[in-house]
Specification:
The complex is a heterodimer of chains A (about 400) and B (about 290).
Chain A: H1 18-32, H2 35-49, E1 55-57, H3 59-65, E2 69-74, H4 84-97, E3 102-107, H5 111-123, E4 126-132, H6 133-138, H7 140-148, E5 152-156, H8 163-176, E6 181-183, H9 194-202, H10 204-217, E7 223-227, H11 232-238, E8 248-256, H12 267-270, E9 272-276, E10 279-283, H13 308-316, E11 319-325, H14 326-340, H15 346-358, E12 367-372, H16 380-386, H17 390-402
Parallel strand pairs in A: 2-12, 3-4, 3-6, 4-5, 7-8, 7-12, 8-11
Antiparallel strand pairs in A: 1-2, 9-10
Chain B: H1 3-21, E1 47-53, H2 59-72, E2 76-80, H3 91-102, H4 107-118, E3 124-127, H5 130-136, H6 138-147, E4 152-154, H7 163-175, E5 178-180, E6 182-183, H8 189-196, E7 203-206, H9 220-233, E8 237-240, H10 246-253, E9 258-261, H11 263-272, H12 277-285
Parallel strand pairs in B: 1-2, 1-9, 2-3, 3-4, 4-5, 6-7, 7-8, 8-9
The chains are: A alpha/beta (about 400), B alpha/beta (about 290).
Organism (chain A): Candidatus Kaiserbacteria bacterium RIFCSPLOWO2_01_FULL_54_20
Pathway (chain A): Amino-acid biosynthesis; L-tryptophan biosynthesis; L-tryptophan from chorismate: step 5/5
Cofactor (chain A): pyridoxal 5'-phosphate
Chain lengths: ~400, ~290
């Protein structure tokens, strides 16, 4: 047998995208070297999105867990409530450099769609967002907000009607509108150069963690934890620490409700090498090579593939993968709300759930950083359902009757 | 092709392209990119390639669809293996693939159907997205479709110069299968020239870009692109652009070597069942 290292990533796309990807790659390379682009990007991060985001010392949770000091990197403090706006700003600026008139995006939870819609409005671009009709049902508030921002939200009515189908539809629309539209892919996946590009933009998270922790604890973290759907907040949180062998990097996937295919979205549980949505990586799929349905309480983790760089780092052992179930995620969100006054998005709550397991096993002088990829406002309805909140049900009914 | 169809299609050819392509079948000079003595995708008159989905609407009815396509006068059958996420297909084909999978279609059942379709005596080109092929193992997949009677393979999401593209080129060469490039208007000349080096059999030209002429469904841009493809690839050019009617077939026949129709048959199955396919083909071929 060969022990050849797998070439994750690549650009497995129809020929009609070849030229578009070539031009995008060239523009990205030139933008990286352009001080004016850097200045503009950093200015938007600071004065529009509100970076740097705070690094919160979770003092009461640390005491309760009885082990490592727990810090929360609060990406939920970003404008629009999640880390997604960072790569949208970067791509939006690139789209303008390319002379594109429109941003298009897929969205699961609605966070990436909302971030794209926001950036499009800010930069004066049109915006079309594709979203599975099942996700629209689960995330109505974000759909409403996107529409207020002037974006057209297109429901995708076929397949599993979730994130992967939204990607398919966005790709099709892109192929029909290559001259005018830039496809703002929402994670560190898709054909090259997207994984590298989004990782480049998101890497600011890890640089901030390093600087903030240096100031507070004068040391590197012992572990960095982040939830993983496609992996954009995880790659962003890990990037600057990859060369620091003392720092454990742990990605936390959606364990859903069980270990059978269709009950979770964890590639650690059942990921197999495949080629899909333009890249080679680990995917949840059937024996026949059909992409499998996934489940997670959090729409943002409800996706079959993992970013190629993360698959590579997992294979090499540099990044560990873990998973948290739906119930563990809800419970962790509740725990940190009560102890730290932080209501996290259900996606990020998966990383919090793992932190509750990891921190007690580590010594008191060690430091664990958990990235809160987003805040929990968007999950209001999901939380209310998870906690079987009767008064919320009454509120919705009253609200409906009032209109 | 039935004799009456042949006569009518010859008339189409004569009205549209006699000046470029007169002469009897078999007299066209073999071009540089087409050294195969017998390329079933090359003819002196336009050929009609009918697309179908293995297992749509059901596994047993798909066989009837294939028979109908053959009897109606299709020269070539394109057999698509259904995939859960057909990203390069429009909604009609995408939903039909989903229906086929729901009705129990698998890669194995698609290959069984391929053997049956091959017995109709028409060349069969297999179309699949990359992941099912990759999952089965590239050399294994190619050998299996060869044994089942396919003569060409189309994988729209696998560039020739990727690791898997090179493996497919090698396996296809070994098994005497044409690995067919899929190109679209807008693909630059340098890229086409690069693809042409490895291309055999024919070229599959399609698009999802809205290329619509002022006075017709097909813009001059498309015809210019087909002409460019002919000069670069020196292979028959198959064109699939949402063919719906007899007029569409007639117009494309003036430019393309092979006219492809697909979603029109899915729609026909939806409204009239598998038994309506023969008539649908006859109507298209006029």
């Amino acid at each position: 047998m060969t022990d050849k290292h797998t070439n994750y990533g690549g650009a497995y796309v129809p020929e009609m995208l070849w030229e578009t990807l070539r031009v995008l790659t060239a523009e990205f390379e030139s933008a990286k070297k352009d001080p004016e682009f850097q200045r503009e990007f950093e200015d938007l991060l600071k004065n529009y999105s509100g970076r740097p985001t705070p690094l919160i010392f979770a003092e009461r949770a640390t005491k309760d867990l009885g082990g490592a000091k727990v810090y929360l990197k609060n990406e939920g403090a970003n404008h629009t409530g999640a880390h997604k706006i960072t790569h949208c700003l970067g791509q939006g600026l690139l789209a303008k450099r390319l002379g594109k008139k429109m941003l298009i995006a897929e969205t699961g939870a609605g966070q990436h769609g909302l971030a794209t819609a926001t950036v499009a409005a800010k930069l004066g671009l049109e915006c079309v967002v594709f979203m599975g009709s099942e996700d629209i049902r689960r995330q109505r508030p974000n759909v409403f907000l996107m529409e207020r921002l002037g974006t057209k939200v297109v429901p995708v009515e076929y397949g599993s009607k979730t994130l992967k189908d939204a990607v398919n539809e966005a790709l099709k629309f892109w192929m029909e509108n290559l001259d005018t539209a830039h496809y703002c892919i929402g994670s560190v996946l898709g054909p090259a150069p997207y994984p590298e590009m989004n990782r480049y933009f998101q890497s600011v998270i890890s640089r901030e963690i390093r600087a903030q922790l240096k100031e507070r604890e004068n040391k590197l973290p012992d572990a960095v934890l982040a939830c993983v759907g496609g992996g954009s907040n995880a790659m962003g949180s890990f990037d600057d620490f990859l060369a620091e062998k003392s720092v454990r990097l742990i990605g936390v996937e959606a364990g859903g409700t069980g270990k059978k295919l269709g009950e979770h979205a964890s590639r650690k549980i059942a990921g197999e090498l495949g080629i899909f949505h333009g890249y080679k990586s680990l995917f949840l799929q059937t024996e026949d090579g059909q992409i499998a349905p996934t489940h997670s309480i959090s729409a943002g983790l409800d996706y079959p593939g993992i970013g190629p760089d993360l698959a590579d780092l997992y294979e090499s052992g540099r990044v560990e993968l873990a998973y948290a179930t739906d119930d563990e995620a809800v419970s962790a969100a509740d725990y940190f709300a009560k102890f730290e006054g932080v209501i996290s998005a259900l996606e990020s709550a998966h990383a919090l759930a793992e932190a509750r397991k990891v921190a007690p096993k580590l010594s008191k002088d060690s430091v664990v950083v958990v990235t809160l990829s987003g805040r929990g406002d968007k999950d209001l309805f999901n939380f209310a359902r998870a906690f079987k909140d009767e008064s919320f049900k009454k509120f919705l009914k009253d609200e409906y009757e009032r209109s | 092709m039935t004799d009456s169809n042949k006569a009518k299609r010859a008339a189409v050819r004569d009205s549209g392209r006699v000046s470029q392509r007169g002469g009897a079948r078999g007299s066209a000079p073999a071009a540089a990119g087409d050294s195969d003595a017998q390329n079933p995708y090359r003819a002196n008159e336009p050929l009609f390639m009918a697309h179908m989905i293995a297992g749509y609407p059901t596994i047993s009815d798909a066989e009837k669809v294939a028979e109908g396509l053959g009897k109606g006068g299709a020269d070539i059958i394109e057999l698509q293996i259904p995939f859960s996420d057909p990203m390069a297909d429009g909604p009609t084909i995408a939903v039909a693939c989903e229906d086929a999978l729901k009705a129990g279609a698998t890669v194995a059942s698609s290959l069984t159907l391929l053997s049956k379709v091959s017995r109709l005596g028409k060349p069969v080109a297999v179309m699949s997205y990359l992941n099912p092929v990759f999952r089965k193992g590239i050399p294994n997949f190619v050998k299996t479709i060869r044994d089942a009677g396919a003569s060409a393979l189309i994988v729209p999401d696998c560039p020739f110069d990727s690791e898997e593209g090179r493996a497919l080129l090698d396996a296809c060469k070994e098994n005497d299968i044409f690995f067919v490039p899929v190109v679209s208007p807008g693909v630059p000349k340098e890229r086409l020239e690069q693809l042409a080096k490895d291309s055999r059999g024919f070229v599959y030209c399609t698009s999802r870009q809205g290329i619509t002429g002022a006075n017709s469904k097909f813009a001059q841009d498309l015809f210019d692109f087909v002409a460019e493809l002919k000069s670069i690839f020196k292979l028959p050019i198959a064109v699939g652009f949402g063919v719906r009617s007899r007029d569409d077939v007639a117009t494309l026949s003036k430019h393309a070597d092979i006219v492809i129709a697909g979603s029109v048959f899915v729609n026909a199955v939806k409204t009239g069942g598998a038994s309506s396919i023969e008539k649908t083909v006859r109507e298209l071929l006029g």
